[in-house]
Design a protein that fits this description.
Radius of gyration: 19 Å
Largest sheet: 8 strands, mixed
Number of domains: 1
Number of strands: 10
Distance between the termini: 67 Å
Helix content: 40-55%
CATH superfamily: Aldolase class I
Mean pLDDT: 86
CATH class: Alpha Beta
CATH architecture: Alpha-Beta Barrel
Low-confidence stretches: 1-13
Shape: globular
CATH topology: TIM Barrel
Length: 309
């Protein structure tokens, strides 16, 4: 009788060793602990901490942080993401807008990124909550620039009409940059992004530009799921067709054995080449590197894009 090998054991024996270029310190402990203390005292989340971003110490030192709104539990089940999922999300914390605004002021943040889990359980997908948090931040931090990184705001049965209305709600609040990540190439969408669609994500970026051309648009991919260079470049071209201004490219790093395995670690040289291709296609700014994440140098890149626009 053959001995059964569990899926976990099998995946462990096929792990690709982490290359040297991905092994780095997350930054100065003092900078990280100061932010952690403030957000924990207020019971709020940052994607920097929830997603264990390798650049969080560096971003904190540059007075930038990314807040995760509407609780830590997502209603989608993307197979690459570290964020909590699989059970009912929590009720909205009515004090969250004020807590985030206070944290921005205490930390002296000059550039804030607001993101959220997908909240398909809410009647507006959380669009009005983004606006409420933005307005509250501006009341006490009028000089802080705000970027949003939103889910696709899919309208369910009401489809594109509702989706566009939700996006319009956020755009009307005038974020300096609107980010929505397409995450991977067309072929791998169903595997990597359960509940999301490639064309739907392109529509988000397209509609933002139609609603307000002055808003910088941005998207990103996490490489390592088995995509090819040709597919990546096709994605670049699709993003440019809908007017996407900025692009981020980073390496997918498997959070646990319950997540998708890494199919390839792209080298720094390959990231450099892809960055150059992206720039040649007309993106205002491209951040391309193994440890790049959506909000890496977000403030600087947005400012550069406004100058070029």
């Amino acid at each position: 009788m053959k001995k059964r090998i569990s899926a976990t054991k099998h995946s462990q024996t096929n792990l690709i060793p982490l290359p040297l270029w991905l092994r780095r310190s997350v930054g100065r402990a003092s900078e990280i602990s100061a932010v952690q203390r403030i957000i924990k005292q207020r019971n709020i989340q940052t994607i920097c901490e929830e997603g264990r971003c390798p650049n969080r110490g560096e971003c904190y030192a540059r007075k930038t942080a990314t807040f995760l709104l509407m609780g830590p539990t997502c209603t989608r089940s993307c197979s690459f993401c570290q964020v909590d999922k699989g059970h009912s999300p929590t009720a909205l914390d009515v004090l969250e807008p004020q807590k985030v605004a206070e944290s921005v002021k205490l930390l002296g943040l000059l550039y804030v990124v607001l993101t959220s889990v997908a909240r398909d359980d809410l009647s507006d997908g959380g669009a009005n909550w983004f606006v409420k948090v933005m307005e509250t931040i501006r009341q006490s931090n009028p000089h802080t620039e705000i970027e949003v990184l939103t889910p696709d705001f899919w309208g369910g049965r009401e489809g594109e009409i509702m989706q566009r209305q939700r996006i319009a709600t956020v755009v009307a609040a005038q974020p300096v940059c609107y980010n929505h990540n397409i995450e991977t190439v067309r072929r791998l969408q169903n595997i990597v992004r359960r509940g999301a669609k490639y064309e739907r994500s392109l529509s988000v970026l397209k509609w933002v530009k139609e609603l307000d051309k002055s808003v910088i648009t941005k998207s990103g991919l996490m490489l390592g799921h088995g995509e090819t260079e040709t597919e990546i470049i096709e994605t670049f071209k699709d993003l440019r067709k809908v007017g996407c201004d900025n692009l981020t490219l980073g390496q997918y790093m498997r959070p646990s054995l319950n997540h998708l395995p890494v199919r390839k670690y792209w080298t720094p040289e390959e990231f450099k080449k892809l960055g150059e291709i992206g720039r040649s296609l007309g993106f205002y700014n491209v951040r391309s590197g193994p440890l790049v994440r959506s909000s890496y140098y977000a403030g600087q890149d947005c400012l550069n894009s406004l100058v070029k626009a």
